[in-house]
């Protein structure tokens, strides 16, 4: 089961939906990013075995990197 474009779009939509369902406009960019991170971890924990080793983790890490850039979140 190799991840394809449809899998990626579904994961993106699920992450967005999870964060939107619990987010608040008053959240800081850091707090909003952390919600994405929590949602990604939950997906990784529940679906890791559905993908070849490392594939889901690599995709989610790339997704989170894009969100960090979008929100301007920096790590020390």
Structural notes for this entry:
The structure is a single chain. 71% of the residues lie in helices and 0% in strands. By secondary structure, it is an all-alpha fold. The longest helix is centred in the middle third of the chain and has 19 residues, at 29-47. The N and C termini lie far apart (36 Å). The model has no long low-confidence stretch (mean pLDDT 90).
Tell me the number of strands: 0
Number of helices: 3
Oligomer: single chain
**Helix/strand order, N-terminal first:** HHH
Measured distance between first and last alpha carbons = 36 Å
Main beta sheet: none
| Mean pLDDT over the full residue set | 90
Radius of gyration: 13 Å
Short précis:
This protein is mostly helical and 76 residues long. It has helices at 5-22, 29-47, 55-71. The protein has three helices and no strands.
What does the secondary structure layout of this molecule look like, with pairings?
Layout: H1 5-22, H2 29-47, H3 55-71
Helix pairs in contact: 1-2, 2-3
Q: Which key features would you list for this structure?
A:
single chain; globular; 3 helices; 76 residues; mainly alpha
